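Notes from the 1:1 (GR / supervisor)

We went over the backlog. Supervisor wanted to see one worked example end to end before approving the batch request, so GR pasted a single chain during the call. The sequence is below; no edits were made to it. Supervisor asked that the structure be written out right there so they could see what the output format looks like.
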Amino acid sequence: MIHIISTGGTIEGLDYEDPDNRGQSKTISIDRLLDQIGYQGNFVVEKILDKDSRFITEPDRIKITDKIKSFSGSKILLTHGTITMVETAKYLGKLKLDKTIVLTGAFILGTDPNTDAGSNLNYALQQIENLQHGVFIAMHQQIFLWDNVVKNSVANQFEPLT
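Structure output shown during the call:
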């Protein structure tokens, strides 16, 4: 079983044009995105945050970690805003949890007809089946290990450090 933890972000339709929007009104759920991509695997979705990732704090990362540790299974998919996705991946990676944790999100609003949300979610779900324990970022048909990834904000993509 894959445990999907939802934290908010563009994948769920948060519009970053409103810089004061610290929460978000959910415009599309991860469950709905899973329906749209036709995912039929064994999963459970749990929403634990509803935040623009710019506002994810250390206590939020502790909450994410506690939730991950509480799952008996070893496959965790974490949907997360892209702005601080690398920071959360590094935080989790340094903990050396005995699980496979894949973070994914979207650069284009999950509610936009041209969103990358579904394809990123689908790719992350495919990859989680084949990865060894560790922390990874899955975006735009690429997989990155937590300690070898950077977000290129100019090109709007993730890239390896080396």
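Supervisor's comment: The mean pLDDT is 93.
Batch request approved.
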